[in-house]
Amino acid sequence: MQTIFVNIKCELGKAYEVADQAVQTVEQVSEVHSTSGQYDLMLKCFLGDQDDIGHFVTDSIQTLPGVKDTFTIVAYKAFN
After folding, report:
1. d(CA 71, CA 15)
2. Contacting residues for 53 by C-beta, under 8 A, at least 6 apart
3. Mean pLDDT for back-to-back runs of 10 residues, the chain (80 residues)
């Protein structure tokens, strides 16, 4: 299992719509948080070990209506 975080910059006034679409239509999305700063949303996603992160982000996240830009972070280990 691969964990990635995708920060999203949305078109003005579209953050809530993008968040709703991500939760409703992308099964790999676990959590969506609104954030302050350069990006509007942060998605936590779980992908299979063989899934291609680049294809997932470009095909499933960047194509959501209202998404202007993304920044992807690959997580290596979760500490509990």
Report:
1. 15
2. 2, 4, 47, 72, 74
3. 97 98 98 97 97 98 98 94
* Topology adopted by domain 2-75: Alpha-Beta Plaits (3.30.70)
CB atoms within 10 A of CB 43: 25
Handedness of CA 7, 18, 56, 68 (dihedral sign): negative
Is the pTM of the predicted complex or chain greater than 0.90? yes
Instruction: Please name the amino acid found at residue 55.
Output: H
8 A C-beta contact, residue 67 and residue 4: no
Residue 23's region, left for phi above 0, alpha for psi from -120 to 50, else beta, is: alpha
